[in-house]
Specification:
The chain is mainly alpha-helical. It has one domain (7-75). The chain has two helices and no strands. The radius of gyration is 24 Å and the shape is rod-shaped. The model has no long low-confidence stretch (mean pLDDT 93). Pfam families: DUF2164 (PF09932).
């Protein structure tokens, strides 16, 4: 479902997990532990966030389509009856 995340971004996110864990608990979490949390979030939480992004995109697109429809109706010309 997800595309491969570039290593630089993955490493950044893992570092943020480690920082968050330390701030919350005062304990350090190693790379393996943070990677396990990252993998969990991607597998279990990621689909919820992805679907929310899809629905938000759909809503924006629908709003744009309504504006486009209004613009198209504004271009119509009256037809004189004979």
């Amino acid at each position: 479902m997800f595309t491969k995340i570039p290593k630089e971004q993955r490493d950044e996110m893992i570092g943020r997990i480690q920082s968050f864990h330390y701030e919350q608990t005062g304990d350090e979490i190693g790379d393996l532990g943070a990677e396990n949390w990252f993998d969990f979030f991607m597998k279990e939480i990621g689909p919820f966030l992805y679907n929310k992004g899809v629905m938000d995109s759909k809503d924006v697109l629908m709003d744009k389509m309504l504006l486009l429809e209004d613009d198209l109706y504004a271009l119509k010309r009256p037809v004189n009856p004979k």
